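Structure in, sequence out. Go:
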């Protein structure tokens, strides 16, 4: 059983990587200052026009890189805002999760709060399903047995919660939405079938905690970033590591 379906995706992915390597080789950078404390996450929306950042200062900021006068701040959280995710089906909707035990959904076009959902623990990470119907959130537990809760945002009800016997740092759906990845503090990646949430495979990926998981938008690759100073690149079809990166200069 494979968690991707397109047999041509590997070659397409290689071509896309080469295209972006050429673009980045000619790129310049600019620094924006807007938060008073450490930035916890940053995410581009689906069109690449808006950048959302969250911070330990409890503020969510929406940046318009091409028109800075339209930058806005979203206020309402009372604890560290650990993560944000854009709605895959609506480029103007943003969800944020905080250690104040709240998830908030925002309309960034108007700057207004759409909904606040209170959870049973401090929220340290989240993801939004590809079809836009479900938000998954990691709830930190002091005994290092974290939970992941899945929330149907059409009714704003949690329909499933799983407890894991390890520290859970990152979660991600694949782009087909039929698998769900959970990273652990011991360096493994646990692949669950979705929506049944049955265990499918455990990947021994790193020697340190995995803090970041990202899926290739074309569906071919998965990247994991770890405290062991390595990034591993995985083939989604074979669930095999095809490369590790250790030079970030």
């Amino acid at each position: 059983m494979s968690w991707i379906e397109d047999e041509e995706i590997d070659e397409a992915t290689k071509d896309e990587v080469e295209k972006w390597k050429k673009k980045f080789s000619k790129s310049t950078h600019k620094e924006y200052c807007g938060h008073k404390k450490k930035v916890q996450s940053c995410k581009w929306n689906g069109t690449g026009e808006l950048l959302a950042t969250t911070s330990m200062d409890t503020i969510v900021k929406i940046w318009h890189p091409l028109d800075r006068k339209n930058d806005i701040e979203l206020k309402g959280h009372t604890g560290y805002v650990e993560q944000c995710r854009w709605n895959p089906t609506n480029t103007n909707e943003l969800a944020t999760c905080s250690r104040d035990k709240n998830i908030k959904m925002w309309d960034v076009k108007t700057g207004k709060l759409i909904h606040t959902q209170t959870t049973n623990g401090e929220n340290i990470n989240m993801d939004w399903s590809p079809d836009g119907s479900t938000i998954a959130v990691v709830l930190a537990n002091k005994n290092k047995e974290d939970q992941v809760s899945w929330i149907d945002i059409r009714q704003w009800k949690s329909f499933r919660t799983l407890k894991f016997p390890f520290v859970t740092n990152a979660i991600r759906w694949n782009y087909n939405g039929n698998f769900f990845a959970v990273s652990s503090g011991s360096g493994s990646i646990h692949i669950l079938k979705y929506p049944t949430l049955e265990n499918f495979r455990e990947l021994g990926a790193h020697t340190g905690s995995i803090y970041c998981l990202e899926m290739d938008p074309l569906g071919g690759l998965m990247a994991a970033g770890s405290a062991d100073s390595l990034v591993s690149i995985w083939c989604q079809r074979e669930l095999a590591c095809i490369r590790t990166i250790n030079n970030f200069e």
